[in-house]
Model the fold of this input.
Amino acid sequence: MSLQQTLTVFELIDSAHVSGQDIVDLFAGYPGIIASTNRADGPKGGTDFVRITIPGSKGKSSGGTAPTLGIIGRLGGIGARPTRIGLVSDADGAIAAVTSALKLADMQRKGDVLEGDVIITTHICPNAPTRPHDPVDFMDSPIDDVTMNDNEVVEGVDAILSVDTTKGNRIINHKGYAISPTVKEGYILRVSEDLLRIMEMTSGKPAVTFPITTQDITPYGNGVHHLNSILQPSTATSVPVVGVAITAESVVPGCGTGASHEVDIALAAKFAVEVAKEFGRGTCQFFDADEYQLLLSLYGSLRHLQNRK
Done:
């Protein structure tokens, strides 16, 4: 992953006037890449959702059968203007997702085409609200979580990486990024061995994972504590979801500025790209399908945990 690509996206997004159309325009020179944006408004303001599709050589978009990976840049907002000036820590997920798309688009233009399609989604809001949270304030979102999932959790993907800044806690004390266990329809499954292998290969270091609880995989708004929104996509899909948390050793509020580290974002984006390569050709599995069926036969469905009530 080129650090220059991360910096390109970083500088583009670090603006009080950036919009979803600016992200779409970034991909205008890449033949075959489909980028679009749509506006969603809520009681606290509005945001621009962005969707970028990187077609694969054997992907569903061209009539093939190769699996499709979804990459979601999860966040409340890239900025908290006018309360905060500049890019907030919470923006890292959006930067990582768009950087992944930019790298994949550049690879395709140079002749390196993945087998499976990759669909990247995120949203661009430079003036999102904030809200109190323990131990530090969260970034809030101008729109509700149902609207967020409706726009970011797209039909047709076979697995999802949800990339989110996860620094406002005392659970993960590591600078860089970490991955979660796989979540599927209310079950917290074992951490994927394939994802651990790819993480160690791309980082050159031992894999880092983070714990999640039942509360974290239930929908927002149910009154229970959540680590953050990194696994909210799992409440709106039947496919496996893994959180990719961009992390810090210290407790950093999501609305803090000057707290993004481009190298860490680039590492997370590189991981996502390598997962996309392997997932599309069938050499990376997010979960053991046979073991999941055994769990269902022993304990039944846990899909009720995906519901708000």
Notes: The chain has seven helices and eleven strands. The two ends are 42 Å apart (CA to CA).
